[in-house]
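Hey, resending since the last one bounced:
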Amino acid sequence: MKSLRLVIAICALLISTPVLMAADTGPATGTVAETIEAGSYVYLRLEDGTWIAANTFAVSRGDEVQYSGGMEMTSFHSKSLDRTFDSILFVSQASLVNSNGDDTSAAAMEGHGSMGMQLKKAASATAPAPGEITALKDGKTVAAIFAESAGLKGQAVSLNARVIKVNEQIMGKNWITLQDGTGTDPDNKLLATSQEMVAPGALVVAKGTVVTDVDLGFGYNYKVLLEEATFSPGVE
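The structure tokens again:
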């Protein structure tokens, strides 16, 4: 469950800041200048200023560590630490390096390389202007879904919207951001999960189940998500 929550938290980047970027970190080494433990994770500041995060392992200031499989988050806010990192690498593997240059005490970060997750670059399109997209006669708008979310929880809804961003096959799902020109930031973007694939820029009728008050961990809390979405051609 913890690993799933971590990966879903990464996927939450699709519709909000901070920004996630794949990073070529493998393997790299550095000397620890600061350590902070938070739950089952340890945050390490290296002497070159790099911050990395990994599953907790025995590490102290002055230790040399080796790490790999990094994915960078910018402007990442840690809820448990109440601290925002300008840039931090969530790594799949972190370990001590002994005097012979061999690494020991490996600690794989759940939900990253230890699960074979591959992050693909998101394809994106321009958001529609207000009034550009026709609302469904018997459907909802993005603004209405957010405004009525408490009453819509667990219900199936449909909306006419444009596909703004697509991330393919993360944990077996496609993560699709929808906008229809309604709502105000941040409640103008609706994230849908689906087994179907749609192209960025496509006008679609999306249908899915509303889930509310979703806590994805790592400081990501969402009022609304649309799950198990299906798509058909949009209404002009």
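The chain has two domains: 2-115, 123-233.

Sorry for the duplicate.
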